[in-house]
Amino acid sequence: MKYTVTKDKCSNCGKIRSKKFWTFKDKTRLCDDCHWRYGELWQKDIDTKETHPTYKEKIGQELKGLGGWLIIPVSIMFVLIISAIFSFIISLVASISKTGWSLFFVFIYLGLLALYITTLVFIFQKSLLGKKLMIASFYANLINTAIADMLLYSDPEEYIATGITFFITWILIKYLNNSERVKNTFTK
Ligand SMILES: [Zn+2]
Asked: Which one-letter DSSP state was computed for residue 158?
């Protein structure tokens, strides 16, 4: 062994030999010498840190939960669910009168609905999977919008819905990947 693990090591001077070590609440240790000299100050510093959390810790506590800007992507999930329910019903009605494409869409919307609802469940559990599924849902919605535009219009210049959805999806995913609140909220 080239190194030794010393349990008793002074957090101030690094000394490992002392007839007595003083352990503090924050698991720091002081040798007898340092304790005699700085013990009181050391304790005061620990108390101050406890009652006054650092700026970063404070921000972390404030930027947490499904509020702030995060309310926007979460609300959009509800909009996606409602619109998928309507699209599902419309395609189901259409598939009763004729077969082919409409039956295909019945399954598409059923799948999207399952994805969106699962996503929402994980969002409210504040699971990291909630964030990942949210990104997957926005991509799925973008692809779905593009397919709908392609079937409706022959001229790519008319793919307006796809263009708008692409822009919104881009902003939402950028936010989900960079937000401090998202990082602090989806932790499980
Ligand atoms: Zn010491």
From this structure: G
In the 8-state DSSP scheme, what is residue 157?
Answer: G
Residue extents of the structural domains in the chain: 1-52, 65-185
Q: Convert the pLDDT of each residue in 35-61 to its tens digit.
A: 999 899 899 888 887 766 666 566 566
pLDDT, one tens digit per residue, over 98-131 is: 766 778 889 999 999 999 999 999 999 999 999 9
Q: What is the whole-number distance in angstroms between the Cα of residue 36 and the centre of ligand 1? A: 9
CA of 8 to the centre of ligand 1 (A): 11
pTM, 2 dp: 0.67
Query: What top-level class would CATH report for the domain 1-52?
Result: alpha beta
Separation of CA 53 and ligand 1 centre (Å): 26
- Element holding 122 (H helix, E strand): helix 101-124
Q: Which residues pair with 160 in a beta bridge?
A: none
Which pair of structure tokens corresponds to residue 114? 């399952």
Give residue 34 CA to ligand 1 midpoint distance, Å: 4
